[in-house]
Specification:
By secondary structure, the protein is mainly α. The protein has one domain. 53% of the residues lie in helices and 2% in strands. It has a two-stranded antiparallel sheet.
């Protein structure tokens, strides 16, 4: 299974690169995704969700948050946002005035905030953990019923994924949310920060069930409340 490719398919990475003349190749620790060299605003600004995550959100309201991540840098950009939140928290910055990750930050992501190399067991495992986190968060309000699962299955079947990757997605959609298993697969505050961040992308904080889910997840991941606030800031205030 190409876990990095599956992760990028979840985040819809590269979807908007063809429309951006300033795109350039960079040393993306996630693989061969083009990184955007010059973009205005934060990474989370201005686009609707795509990829498998967009399918999971289905009829939920279109969000501006996290659009730049999935459009321009995939997992590398998600890592940049988590790293920026972590830096802001460590520096004791006020949440609302803390800087938002931008395109320049894509090339300076601490490796601890990215999945390890794809050819290692640790790399494969963390990529799958991030994918599982997004699926569980998208399912938190119970809106993915059997009919919606069928639609998602049909769309995933059309993607350029190997059979094992598709089977993993289908299995994750079918099985119940298991926070114990998710949390046990996370190592360190860096991974916990990114698991929380990608989960937050799929959460509508105004929905009681989703809000409860993300609060429980933060608690189970042992994330400090102030760090959680900085992660939220990267997602919703870009």
């Amino acid at each position: 299974m190409d876990t990095n490719k599956l992760l990028e398919q979840f985040l819809g990475a590269g979807r908007n690169n063809a429309n951006n003349g300033g795109a350039q190749q960079g040393n993306n620790m996630m693989g061969n995704n083009p990184l955007v060299g010059m973009l205005g605003g934060g990474l989370g600004k201005g686009m609707a969700m795509g990829g498998v995550l967009g399918l999971l959100l289905g009829s939920k309201k279109v969000r501006k948050m996290a659009g730049g991540v999935i459009g321009y840098g995939g997992a590398a950009a998600a890592g940049a946002m988590a790293f920026k939140a972590y830096q802001n928290w460590q520096q004791g910055q006020q949440v609302q005035s803390a800087p938002i990750a931008n395109a320049a930050d894509l090339q300076n992501v601490d490796p601890r905030f990215l999945p390890p190399p794809a050819n290692t067991a640790a790399g494969q495992n963390f990529s799958l953990t991030l994918i599982t986190a997004m699926v569980f968060a998208a399912k938190a309000d119970g809106h993915i019923d059997a009919k919606e699962q069928t639609v998602i299955f049909e769309q995933v079947e059309k993607m350029s994924l190997d059979a094992e990757s598709k089977a993993f997605v289908f299995d994750a959609l079918r099985k119940p949310v298991d926070l114990d298993a998710l949390v046990s697969s996370v190592q360190g505050i860096e991974q916990a920060s990114e698991v929380y961040l990608v989960s937050r992308m799929a959460i509508d904080i105004d929905h009681p069930a989703e809000r409860a889910y993300i609060e429980v997840l933060a608690n189970r991941l042992n994330l400090p409340a102030e760090l959680t606030a900085h992660l939220d800031h990267q997602v919703i205030d870009a």
